[in-house]
Amino acid sequence: MRPTEPVDFIALLAAFASKKKKQVRDCQVFDPNGYFKERDPSVGSSVSDRSAYAFKHELRLNQRRRRVSIMASQYCIRLQVDGSLNVGVCSINREDRIMPADIRSDLRVLGDPRWPIFVTPALPRAGLLAFLNRPSVHAAATLLIHSPQDSVLVTQGSVCAYFCPGTAAEFQSAIDSLCGLVEPKGRRSRADLQPLPKEFQPLIPLILRWAEDDDGWRQEALRAASRPELKSLVSTVTPYLNAIDNYLTTNDDDAARALGRLAEFTVEARLDLERSENHGSPPLKIV
Q: N or C: which end of the chain has fewer CB within 10 A?
């Protein structure tokens, strides 16, 4: 049920994180899909004005083998679940301002006329039609959409909801609902990395452990790692960095990109260690 009184979404996120024994992190993300100008006509349209609507608090966690990111602004919650999903792009109930998915279509969620469907200029995939006819999609829309500002955005590999929960308990229901829409994403295996040259084969266990494609999740892994783990990683991989750079100039397959991600993480870990040891600064924040 959508709250009728003002809700402190940042406090709700903190309460949910505490229950999960997780920590809310600072971030600074402006997402135009979360920009609810109609709620506060006094806010203008310049970049500085719109910063009032930025998502400034974030919680990341793994649920049911899916990656979950929850961001809070003072106006709404942004909940994204990443996994395996390849059905096309659409936005349920409200135009998506990023893709953009802003063409109103005649598609429906299980035939329900309550929520308009917006698509990109490209023709919808046949898989999108089947996806929208799933009862689980209808249940998610019913749970999360209660006003013209709420929406559920379907993209390549993720589902993202913009909504306004009334209690911290509603977070888990929302997460469970979106997790039901995407399959767990397959993890890299040793077989995926076999194309790497022999000289890089010793790094395969580290690639499987530390090579992270997403910047935000890479920062999360950096925060969660112990100092001894990072020191061991840096001392092991640093001697390979020049060779990795040379290899990446002429190779761009999946295995090479994973190797590059390991190199990126190693450099970030080294900078983080230097910052902590020389200046006593906290770990890097997501920006």
A: N
* pLDDT tens, position by position, 46-90: 545 566 678 999 999 988 889 999 999 988 999 999 989 999 999
**Residue pLDDT, tens place only, 133-175:** 999 999 999 999 999 999 999 998 999 999 999 999 999 999 9
pTM of the model: 0.77
Close Cβ partners of 190 (under 8 Å, ≥ 6 residues apart):
204, 208
Strand-pairing partners, residue 63, are 66
pLDDT for residue 279: 61
State the Cα–Cα distance between residues 255 and 189, nearest whole angstrom. Answer: 10
**DSSP per-residue letters across 17-33:** HHHTT---EEEEE--GG
Q: In angstroms, rounded to a whole number, what is the distance separating the alpha carbons of residues 2 and 236?
A: 52
- The Cα–Cα gap between 287 and 275 comes to 17
- Rounded-to-integer distance, Cα 106 and Cα 118, Å: 9
Collapse the DSSP code of 278 into the 3-class scheme (helix H, G, I; strand E, B; otherwise coil) and give the result: helix
H helices of the chain, where? 9-19, 47-50, 126-132, 135-144, 169-179, 204-210, 215-224, 227-237, 241-248, 254-279
Euclidean distance between CA atoms 126 and 121, whole angstroms? 15
